[in-house]
Amino acid sequence: MRMPGFRYPSDVASALARRVSGVVDASVRVAYIKQTLRELGAAQSAEVLSIVAAHVEARDPEFERLLLAITVALAEQDAAELKREVVDEAIDRGFEEVARMLIGRLDSDELEDDELPVPDFGLGRPLTLGERKAIARKNDRDLIARVLRDPHPDVIRILLGNPCVTEDDIVRLCARRPVSVEVLREISRSTKWVVRYRVKLALVKNPLTPLEVGLQLAPHLARQHAREISDSPELDQALRDACLQRLRRRTTLH
Fold first, then answer.
1. Burial of 175 (0-12, 13-18, 19+ CB in 10 A)
2. How many CB atoms sit inside 10 A of residue 39's CB?
3. What is the pTM of this model?
4. Which of 41, 117, 158, 227 could form a disulfide with 136 if both were Cys (CB 3.0 to 4.6 A apart)?
């Protein structure tokens, strides 16, 4: 299905970039993009995403906002099937960079998290998952400091919506090692926090961040930070190469 009035994927991409730029609420942008991608179908969505990625390489701010909305939309759990279909279409059509950006490596399975300890809440016994979720909703800074160390993504998902949580909290959480891979993935899905530059940077710089998340966020980095990533021996080579390629393209454009 093609968007009414638009014949080519490039027209669809440009129209989406303009529309997304006019929406202030990040969650509304993501919901709109997710519905639009479903209407477009996997094949055209893969084409549109390849065009969007090319515009992002040229540092077009409208397309940068659109790419972030697309990757967050496809990272949501109810979009898992659509994401798989888009990846399959991207691979079939030769858009390997698009597929790699969405799922990381094309030739390896995702590693499982190691067992991480649940924080001690000072009650003399381990808390149930339900109790930890309840604590994550409380407006108590002392408790929040403990909940930030919880390895369960469901607890962190609740915490991310807590109004007492600050950007500094989230940046520290993104930089933590060891940390649950699924916790980092949950942060990358948060429309409230992933739009913050410091959060994006902290996610990309953490070697425990899933590769596909790093590849999705790397196009949004400033030049000096892209250079830092490209020079970092602790980060995945594919991520370093993506940042290096980005720097080279920008040098060519200038």
1. middle
2. 12
3. 0.75
4. 158
| Residue 238 pLDDT greater than 50, yes or no | yes
Q: Which amino acid is at 87?
A: V
The 3-state secondary structure of the chain reads CCCCCCCCHHHHHHHHHHHHHCCCCHHHHHHHHHHHHHHHCHHHHHHHHHHHHHHHHCCCHHHHHHHHHHHHHHHCHHHHHHHHHHHHHHHHCCCHHHHHHHHCCCCCCCCCCCCCCCCCCCCCCCCCHHHHHHHHCCCCHHHHHHHCCCCCHHHHHHHHCCCCCCHHHHHHHHHCCCCCHHHHHHHHHCCCCCCCHHHHHHHHHCCCCCHHHHHHHHHHCCHHHHHHHHCCCCCCHHHHHHHHHHHHHHHHHC
> Domain limits of the chain?
9-103, 129-253
Nearest to 83 by CA among 108, 54, 46, 55: 46
Measured in degrees and rounded to the nearest 5, phi and psi for residue 78 equal -80, 0
CA distance 174 to 185: 10
**Spatial contact of 205 and 92, defined as CB atoms under 8 Å apart:** no
Taking Cα atoms as reference points, which of 117, 55, 100, 68 lies closest to residue 217? Answer: 68
Tokens of 27: 């969650």
Q: Are 114 and 177 in contact (CB under 8 A)?
A: no
